[in-house]
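User: Okay, second chain of the day. Same drill as before: sequence in, structure tokens out.
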Amino acid sequence: MATADGAGSGTRSDAHGGGGNHTAHAILISVVAAIGGFLFGFDTAVINGAVDAMSADFELSAGLSGFAVSSALLGCAAGAWFAGSAADRFGRQPVMIAAAVLFLASAVGSGLAFGVWDLILWRVVGGLGVGVASVIAPAYIAEIAPAEIRGRLASLQQLAIVTGIFVALLSDAFLAGAAGGAAEELWGGLTAWRWMFLAETIPAVAYGLLALTIPESPRFLVARGEESRARDVLQKLMSRENARERITAIKNSLKGEKLVGLRNLTGDRLGLKPIVWVGIFLSLFQQLVGINVIFYYSTTLWRSVGFEESDALTITVITSVTNVVVTIVAILLVDRIGRRPLLLIGSTSMAVALATMAVCFSQATGTGDEVSLAEPWSTVALVAANVFVVGFGVSWGPVVWVLLGEMFPNRLRAPALAVAAAAQWLANFAVSTSFPWLSENAGLSFTYGGYALFAILSGLFVATQVRETKGQELEDMTGATGRTPRRDAAAVG
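Assistant: Same drill. Structure tokens below.
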């Protein structure tokens, strides 16, 4: 693709003709950066297998149990909010290392918690790490990836997230099985649910050590005036000539602007630039469809409709495997058919699946923990839940992270991504905290019906407000919104 500043002239040779070593290096450092996404998924999902036993140990009410589960999300929002300015001030690599330290502290503190309130504190600490990782990994990957494979590399973030969810759930199932139940003693006088949290120390240490081995983002280095270091990084990702062109393109995209953090995001309408609002609403819709209800509460949910604890954990692991597989499908498709088509497909399939679940649970008897769902409705609900996971996993899961990493102009990327990610975590907190109350007081049929409505609205939003970014260089991103082709769109960034 040719660009106005010439930055795109060598893109295809970078990704293909520029040599397999360049592409392999880009993949390698993207995988390391995406380990933050693995911990993101692991940390948020590990409580799934622990929540019932933890609630029984600490004698928690439904409301306090819900808050203990979702408290980490407050830390996620705070971590995401400050990650952008920290990344622009200190660099992408140091912020990754800081996130690894937060994950490690949370794993140890949560596993050795004395009561619910210090458990919540350590979950918030882990949430800070998740929030930081949710910003820094997609920003970093987008900034080092060649345009032709940027979608696939950026999708590694979501693949890492769902793999982290899968490993956390598999670990939960293994530890609960080894002990004879999540509430039973396992090793060293600690119950299995505590070991579920302690297991996170292994990937946390690995992430911190591997983050020391990857280079700093060339766009951060150029912004800091370190062109020589930036050129060294880029020459490992593309030819020497293309590296020089890319340095020039980055400088032009930053010309006349300082990376001043959140103050750079304000605009004339509604307080923020339109492109920032697009990022915020993409983040909100990703959560308001209720995806994390499946991962945070699925064990409890399936037990409530007749499955034993071991069966419910197994079903949860199967659902997680499904999510991993469809994310791989998304990686194969995102640079072929584009971002918008995948989002529209996902919105449609999620709306149908969630509406089906709402109908199924309208046939349930009982309320709260006593709800039961007879055949064939329980089987149909299980199938619909997995169809929902497939629809999300092939679209809104990975594609939102791809768009957030690439849709903002260079000077806005880190702070705009931080604001969008913070909004995502606040929405996640609202959905996760409200689910136990809604399911008990309004019923699961009403709850899933609400998520279906948000799935419909998400499709309408994409159709009217989201622009395609497939194949464009990051230096080409103007911040325009809507469906207008790029060559005709006004730059509003």
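The longest strand covers residues 185-187.

User: Thanks, on to the next one.
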